[in-house]
Amino acid sequence: MELHILEHSLKVASIEKEGIEICTHGLIKLAFLASKTRCKFFSLTETPEDYTIIVDEEGFKELPQSNLISVADSTWLALNVVSGGGNASSSQPIGVTKIAKSVIAPLADHNISVFMLSTYQTDFILVRERDLPMVMHTLSSEFTLFRVVNGETVAAHNLGISNGFVKPKLVPRPIIHPLSSPSNMFCVTSLDPDTLPSVATLLMDVMFYSRGSKEVGASGEDSSHIRFFSFSLIEGYISLVMDEQTAQRFPNNVLFTSASGELWKMVRIGGQPLGFDECGIVAQISEPLATADIPAYYISTFKFDHALVPEENIQSVIRALRTESTAQ
């Protein structure tokens, strides 16, 4: 398989709920008027705590400076696993559990922190730009490495990597953070960019103005309905994650949905904000799911992580992860 290192230099930021009003103009431009910007990578996810934005440097210029916006240190790069040639964003999704053992676990073993963004189309593994030499060293034996430069895919150079890296000592990864599963069921879907104008008003309402009456944080395994909505526009491809009730607000035949109407349940990871320096959180969750052969989407946000698994698998997922959390 191929590992593509995308050319976008990314910022990860948190917008406080009360700060969304001052950012709405720029966010609407990024989401709905992409032709008016040079932004090629934009993702906005609302949780009960805040809005998380992942955006390239051109898109970041559209946001105001404010003490209501917190920006993670470092520049981030997006990695994409491709099962064959072609554009990374248009390839078939590999699935986070399919890359758990080949990408996520080896990076955790080398103490490299990752930030995950699964979309309808594919999975992006974000790593700090400064970690790229170690990332390439770690994954070069498993993947053919490519970099995207000015839109063209070229063979990646080794950045002067030698064999001087110390072989990591593999250690167990018990789950140490609290887990909760909200009551909502979620859809992972997309829509044709050409239809975006026809649902723009509805999408703006969902993204910026709708407020659920039962917003509850992750306060235990019986957490009820939570506010969670994710919109990504990356290299021309739109991805949406929303709960079933929100999806029902959209006109018929606008959203891409499977014939089976597949729904997903969420596992939220973290009791307190996770931060960006701890390594292995994604591996802690994705490895047990990979072992059980359970597909999953994984979305990291500024404060918490979120895994989406098929509705019918939620009980076995919770059992598997709880077993891992006690194996300390």
What features would you describe in this structure?
22% of the residues lie in helices and 27% in strands. It is of the alpha+beta class and 328 residues long. The strands form 3 sheets. The chain has a 7-stranded antiparallel sheet. β16 (297-300) and β17 form a beta hairpin. The longest helix has 13 residues, at 20-32. 40% of the residues are buried.
Question: Quick summary of this structure?
Answer:
This protein is an alpha+beta fold and 328 residues long.
String of helices and strands: EEHEEHEEHEEHEEEEHEEHEHEEH
Overall body shape: globular
Main sheet: strand order: 5-2-4-3-13-14-12
Give the proportion of residues in helices: 10-25%
Distance between the termini: 34 Å
- Arithmetic mean of pLDDT: 87
From the alpha carbons, calculate the radius of gyration and give it in angstroms: 19 Å
The number of strands is 17
Kindly name the structural category.
alpha+beta
- Low-confidence parts: 88-92, 212-223
Largest sheet: 7 strands, antiparallel
Number of helices: 8
Portion of residues in beta strands equals 25-35%
Keywords:
17 strands; 22% helix; globular; six-stranded mixed β-sheet; alpha+beta
Strand-helix topology:
Layout: E1 2-5, E2 10-16, H1 20-32, E3 41-46, E4 50-56, H2 57-60, E5 69-71, E6 76-82, H3 100-109, E7 114-118, E8 123-128, H4 132-139, E9 144-149, E10 152-155, E11 179-180, E12 186-189, H5 200-209, E13 229-234, E14 237-243, H6 244-247, E15 264-269, H7 281-291, E16 297-300, E17 305-310, H8 314-326
Parallel strand pairs: 1-9
Antiparallel strand pairs: 1-6, 2-4, 2-5, 3-4, 3-13, 6-8, 7-8, 9-10, 11-15, 12-14, 13-14, 15-17, 16-17
Helix pairs in contact: 3-7, 7-8
